[in-house]
């Protein structure tokens, strides 16, 4: 069945790119509502923005959504990944500004509160997007692909990254996101950047709220952030976290295989555009009990959240 959260939960922090204070509250919603953002700092007319692939606007380094009235919310990927990874299908997200708070740079603060407040079943079936045929997009930097999964599987993910800094280097990871794997394996992995890129990002008005506490900063073979890495392959894990958050903008869980080679937010969104432009590449089906157990978030427990220092 579809789900929502049991009660409202609030998060306060700063925007990673704007550097401005931000307060976000996730509220329960009824069945078939989906995920919507509401800007509480502007007039009610035009304040609602759907968390949907076709309202994503081009924005470097994050995912930004915009409604027809011009209202925007950026850096939605971490909270969207948390909702998808905890199996939450319906929520109303109130936010008092244009950027989601970055918190610690991962999804784990969202996951902790979602699982602490609890997920509530609703009286309506879940529909999933089943991939029937491969679709892909490619740029000079990399590529991304959706293809059918093996029989009986939910969402599988393969990701490959390659950075010149030896602290990251080449990393590959495969993960079946069934039954809480996102919470166990990905949710605590933080956004990252190269020290060499920080000045350029800030000169462009980005990363103004970035610190060593909300991002992993690397310089050559060194990790500059205190405490080092939470996982030796934290970078590729975070890329997978981002991909799940961006795929959640499809509006329903995806049953299939996602592959990303040096892919990012824009490429994953372009992949969704390619998918929905090809009606023969997917179908929307009601989720039975067996498939429900294969979806991200099914059966996850609070004690599965990774412990780190």
UniProtKB/TrEMBL annotation:
Keyword RNA-binding among UniProt keywords: no
SUPFAM superfamilies per the UniProt record, alphabetical: Ribosomal protein S5 domain 2-like (SSF54211)
Stored NCBIfam families: lpxC
Catalytic activity: a UDP-3-O-[(3R)-3-hydroxyacyl]-N-acetyl-alpha-D-glucosamine + H2O = a UDP-3-O-[(3R)-3-hydroxyacyl]-alpha-D-glucosamine + acetate
Name by which UniProt lists this protein: UDP-3-O-acyl-N-acetylglucosamine deacetylase
Organism: Pelagimonas varians
GO cellular component: membrane
Family indicated by similarity: Belongs to the LpxC family.
Cofactor(s) the protein needs: Zn(2+)
E.C. number: 3.5.1.108
Keyword line: Hydrolase, Lipid A biosynthesis, Lipid biosynthesis, Lipid metabolism, Metal-binding, Zinc
List of catalytic residues: 265
Task of the protein: Catalyzes the hydrolysis of UDP-3-O-myristoyl-N-acetylglucosamine to form UDP-3-O-myristoylglucosamine and acetate, the committed step in lipid A biosynthesis.
């Amino acid at each position: 069945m579809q789900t929502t959260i049991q009660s409202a939960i609030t998060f306060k922090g700063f925007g990673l790119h704007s550097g401005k204070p931000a307060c976000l509250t996730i509220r329960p919603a009824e069945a078939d509502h989906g995920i919507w953002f509401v800007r509480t700092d502007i007039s009610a007319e035009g304040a609602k923005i759907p968390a949907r692939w076709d309202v994503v606007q081009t924005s470097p380094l994050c995912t930004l959504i915009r409604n027809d009235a011009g209202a925007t919310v950026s850096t939605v990927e971490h909270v969207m990944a948390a909702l998808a990874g905890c199996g939450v299908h319906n929520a109303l997200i109130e936010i008092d500004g244009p950027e989601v708070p970055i918190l610690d740079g991962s999804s784990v603060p969202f996951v902790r509160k979602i699982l602490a407040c609890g997920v509530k079943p609703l009286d309506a079936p879940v529909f999933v997007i089943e991939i029937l045929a491969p679709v892909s997009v490619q740029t000079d930097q990399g590529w991304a692909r959706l293809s059918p999964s093996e029989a009986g599987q939910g969402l599988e993910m393969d990701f490959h990254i390659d950075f010149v800094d030896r602290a990251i280097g080449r990393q590959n990871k495969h993960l079946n996101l069934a039954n809480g794997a996102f919470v166990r394996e990905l949710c605590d992995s933080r956004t990252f950047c190269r020290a060499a890129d920080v000045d350029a990002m800030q000169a462009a008005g980005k990363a103004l709220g970035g610190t060593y506490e909300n991002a992993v900063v690397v310089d050559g073979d060194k990790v500059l952030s205190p405490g080092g890495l939470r996982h030796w392959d934290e970078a590729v894990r975070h890329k997978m976290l981002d991909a799940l958050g961006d795929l959640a903008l499809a509006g329903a869980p995806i049953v299939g295989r996602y592959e990303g080679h040096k892919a990012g937010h824009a490429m994953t969104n372009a992949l969704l555009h390619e998918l929905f432009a090809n009606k023969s590449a997917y179908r929307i089906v009601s989720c039975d009990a067996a498939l429900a157990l294969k979806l991200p978030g099914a059966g996850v427990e609070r004690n599965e959240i990774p412990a780190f220092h």
